[in-house]
Write a structure and sequence with these properties.
mainly alpha, 76% helix, 3% strand, transmembrane, transmembrane helix, GPCR_Rhodpsn, olfactory receptor activity
């Protein structure tokens, strides 16, 4: 581990990830809650994906978006947690520059995809509640294809630029990244030369995603709320619409609030203790991925009923097999 300043002609090719520096003596204990969180993310999101894929009546745009969101959550958490656990348990903390940039790209790319999915979910609810007669004309397979293309073009181009600028820097000082994973500004802060372009690119990412997506999401839900309050006489339908939208808003607030604080603290040089910054960076990834199955699975009646129906059918099949096996043994 090299921490002394070196010649500017030299640039590190290997880095050391040092998350939670003040808790290094207890790093093996840290593996326990993160292992549990990772298992919950895998189990909850995989179960939700399975239920939506298995039940044909859930193959509508809103549920397909939820299914995609769960799949993205699994990918982004898997990009971070297994490598972090290896560091906590076996001190495998080293990562190459190429490996670091690759991890950085996929973390930020998948997070930007999640932002686009949350935007698409807000627009889906807007057209379903505020423009119900035009819903099937607007939200269709063609629209979903355009959404995929838009997501790929926006996320790949912006994140490739962000990572490319970080990769072009010289790292001749410390090679210790004060984070659990290769965060953009945590790596850029180690550079010897000017980081103004990388810092500007980080702010551009916030503007491109948070600054562009949040106003549209906010406008969509304000219009939805207005329609729901005006049609309060509709009773059950209004309560169902309000319940669905409140569910989506809980997820979005968690995702954007923590993510914005994490990004801005680096780019605006806001002094936040390293351990707290590490916790916020992990919470930004782990918290939405952990609560999404609870919010969409437990709070959404259609998914909850479908899960219970699948569970009951599987239980009946198991009981039938056991009964038939017992009958054969007696005979």
């Amino acid at each position: 581990m090299l921490e002394a300043p070196l010649s500017r002609n030299f640039s590190h090719c290997t880095f050391v990830l040092r998350g939670f520096p003040s808790l290094q003596k207890h790093r093996r204990l840290l593996a326990l809650p993160f292992s549990a969180s990772y298992l919950l993310v895998l189990l909850g999101n995989s179960l939700l994906v399975y239920v939506i894929c298995s039940v044909e009546r859930l193959h509508s745009p809103m549920y397909l978006l939820i299914c995609t969101l769960c799949f993205v959550d699994i990918l982004v958490v898997t990009t971070i947690i297994p490598n972090m656990l290896l560091g906590f348990l076996f001190d495998w903390n080293e990562i190459s520059l190429v490996g670091c940039l690759t991890q950085m790209f996929f973390i930020h790319f998948l997070s930007s995809v999640e932002s686009t999915l949350l935007l698409a979910m807000a627009l889906d609810r807007y057209f379903a509640i505020c423009r119900p007669l035009r819903y099937n004309d607007i939200i269709n397979s063609s629209m979903l294809v355009r959404l995929v293309l838009f997501t790929l073009v926006r996320s790949v181009s912006v994140m490739a630029t962000l990572v490319g600028l970080a990769g072009s820097l010289q790292f001749c000082g410390s090679n210790v990244i004060q984070h659990c994973y290769c965060d953009h500004m945590a790596l850029v802060s180690l550079a010897c030369d000017s980081t103004s372009r990388s810092s500007a690119a980080g702010l551009a990412v916030i503007i491109c995603f948070v600054g562009a997506d949040i106003p549209i999401i906010f406008f969509s839900y304000m219009k939805i709320l207005s329609v729901v309050l005006r049609s309060a006489a509709a009773g059950e339908d209004s309560r169902k619409a309000f319940h669905t939208c409140s569910t989506h808003l809980i997820v979005m607030m968690c995702f954007y609030l923590v993510g914005s604080i994490t990004f801005l603290s680096h780019n605006l040089n806001i002094p936040i203790p390293t351990d707290i910054n590490n916790s916020m960076g992990l919470m930004y990834i782990l918290f939405p991925a952990t609560i999404n199955p609870i919010i969409y699975g437990v709070r959404t009646k259609e998914i909850r009923d479908s899960f219970l129906r699948i569970f009951k059918n599987r239980a009946k099949k198991i009981m039938t097999v056991k009964v038939s096996s017992a009958g054969k043994e007696k005979s």
